[in-house]
Sequence to fold (515 residues):
Amino acid sequence: MTRPISEITAGLEPSRKGAPLRPGSRLHIIGVGGTAALAAALHAQALGVRVSGYDQALSEDSARLLSDAAIPVGSAESPEVLRFCERLSPESTVAISKAITSTQPQHPEVLLARRAGAQTISVQQVIADAAATRGGLLIGVGGTHGKTTSTGWVLDALNHSGIKMSAFVGGPLAGDLGTPAGSPVHIGSDAGFIVEADEYGGNFDAYHVDRALILNVDWDHPDIFADRLAAVDTFARWSAYPAANGAAFINTGDQGGAELAARLVRDGCHNVYTFTLLVGTGPTQADVSAQLISRGGGGYSISVDRVSDRAALVAPALGDLLNRELPIGLLGAHNASNGLGVAFLAASVKGTADGIASSLATFGGVGRRMEVRYDRNSITVLDDYGHHPTAIDATIATVRQRYPGRTLLLAIEPLTYHRTSALLEGLAKSCSRADRVAVAEIFAVRDLDTTSVSAATLAERIVALGTPATAPGTVLDTAAALLPAIEPHTVVLVMGGGRSTELARALAQGLSVAP
Fold:
């Protein structure tokens, strides 16, 4: 059963176009440990806003980033920040994660903000306001799958082209891309802002982008989308502005993407540009197409074989990439497809052919996307954020190619009870493609009902498909149960969007000290 957006965003002001932040103004963020909320805090702090936060369960990494930025954070165990919050005034702003408004509209901090008369907005609105403060183009990267990696990739491609925009990416950025390293934020010296545009609950509504890249449209978030067509409707509403006034780059090799592009063109949007990745020869009506070339071991190159005249006008550097074999540094055919979209978008904002080609070949990805946590003694532990059947399928296929002949042990933490219940059969089928599966407790967020399904239920479905599966308990219980049973020549693929990274970390630590 789906929920209306008004219920999920209870108490928040409607999304609006970004407006510049005022240096010295007061911002308090409730649920500050979430990725978007953390990015909002760091961007606002960098622009001179006085920021504080609240969170009941900060991860170690989020706590470190907030502490290093001198952003005070309270929890249920540190009521001094609650008292500090009481000094909010009608001139203050409180940003609230929708994980809280959707399940706890009477949260104590939310009530304090209302009593103070403070403005209450989403954390995405803060990011949109930070982008407006920076000025220049606003670039959005959306899609059901791959948007975090691709947002970081666009940032990297533009950096390689000498263009230093700021960005919000929905995962940890390594090296010189993160400001600081490990954060979901990049503070650039040039005007312009790149943002990961998430479709859940109107999250991307505050992003009135000039350029949009849409990688795919699949059925996810069953609490708000009844089916894929409902998701297409939402993407169409969001992307109509750039499709009419700027540019929208859409992957028509994806069924949902093809439906979206057709809808926008039918609605009179003239700035829709399409791309597709081809396997073998054949006609295509896409503006940009490329051939997929296997390099073995899950690695691929692409060769751009078509750039329409209208695509050459909007993205000139693509002409210089025509008929060049472009190695893709990230593994998997899905990343090759996303890389083509990244090249198209980057070229439309003055990315250079050499800069784009260099980024395609060398970009190392974003944290928790097939991130290697341990790799010794013919045992490998990978940490991946994927939790949807489509993402699980693509990741398992890539792991099989990268590590042929190795036993594949999947340790998965399902994300949300409502998603697990709605997609149960698809999740079971995808998970059963591993050799063994351990299902950790479901990570609850935005869940009103936690009784509809369980980790044990999913494990039973996987066993029924012929793959051994267990449900050991929490992520740490799961790590403890798996450690004694990990044998040489095994790849442990840890997947999940919640605390599963703690499972991967525990496995890596346990294997490191094993005799």
Notes: The chain has three domains: 5-121, 135-362, 371-513.
